[in-house]
Design a protein that fits this description.
alpha/beta, 20 strands, 3 domains, Rossmann fold, Tail_sheath_structural, four-stranded mixed sheet, eight-stranded mixed sheet
Length: 504
Amino acid sequence: MAQDYHHGVRVVEINEGTRPIRTVSTAVIGLIGTAPEAAAGVAAALTLDFAAANSGVSYTAASAGTDGNAIRVRYLDPADVSQALAVSVSGKDINVRLATDIEGAITSTAAEVATAINGAPEAAALVTAAESGTGAGVVSAIGYQNLTGGQDEPLPLDTPVLVTDIYAAIGNAGEEGTLARSLDAIVKQAKTLVVVVRVAEGVDDAETKANVIGGVDPLTGKKTGMQALLAAEQRFGVKPRILGVPELDDADVTSELIAIGQKLRAFVYASAGDSKTKEEAAMYRENFGAREVMVIWPDFTGFDTVTQSTRNHSAVARALGLRAKLDNEIGWHKTLSNIAVNGVSGISQDVFWDLQDPATDAGYLNSHEVTTLINRGGYRFWGSRTCSIDPLFAFENYTRTAQVLADTIAEAHLWAVDKPMHPSPVKDIVEGINAKFRELIRLGYLLGGEAWFDEEINSPEVLKAGKLYIDYDYTPVPPLENLMLQQRITDRYLVDFADRVAAA
């Protein structure tokens, strides 16, 4: 602080103290699907009519989208004699210098203007011109007029789109492909944010799979397919944390999606591929060993209003919606299991289940870390296991708790990076994390948690290098997967039987 002379008052802000930590948003779905009949964009347009001369030109932007609304057209009177019709372009402004006769009167007709526009390469790259009316009438000078009405394609290929109105997105997706069905399944469970990536439907399954997996365009650097989910946070400020590719997720697709999930700290819900039996589903699950994925078998069934018939309904799509619903209504510490699913009326394969008998189809599947479907008081998912070989992350909510805490605590401390490191802000960081843990414990999201400063690891050499280690631990809330009720028969309640008879 400068010590120069001052006769008066100075205020120096000292911004110390703990910062509140805000939990990251978790109910954001990342969805990949196909929609061959998806709504197209609308090209901007403009008609310059001169009714008295029954003459006009209609302009249509060369490409659909809102960019066309920035195109402007004007007709210039050269204010000189014997001038030729000429077209020039500056940015998105099209300037038409009209022709004049030997007396300086404008002679250009609508037909001539349209021909000149279409014949000028720079102008033709922006618009297509067509005469309206007879086209023979002479036009007049007019100032800049904007093309209007251009609308972007609502679901462009290989581009993440943040959907806040799922019903509108269903309409834009059309009836064909997987996207509309998946969105319908999601909205039946919850209204939530969905980051949609539409991919092209290939000529065969292999091409479709390649489109789903995607990559990076070598010319533009644009991420395609499921890789486009990685661009969502920078575009929209939200990170997809619940991922799925309903109806298109074989082992190859799921493996690639798990890699995306690990980068985003997101959780993947996947089907058991083409498995027809519980044994095949259990073997299919062996393809994966990640904590970020849950395998589900079989599918639901229900009535499809498009085909007007009962058909299989993707269990993965409903898992995405139900997961978002639970995050919003209960929390990320509750697993998907044993919650009624909306909009279904059956199960695609017979699954024997009994609440008290472990030797059932459902018990077999759950013991092999496959979540299955049951019908008891409504159709439900049954199973909470991930594909992790590490018991620390055996349950879905254990993985999601780890993901949410990591992002919540890390992102809450952006303010601390590059601050002068002295004891006061370090203490503030520790106290802020502990305050967040106390909140999460009170709300039931954690059983316990604590942060601390470890003097041993934070040696003078480490601190001098600009590094700081803050340790914290936590205990997630285990799901009550196996309730053991111990029933005993006894005759001790018969000991005072005679006395109780007498008393009666």
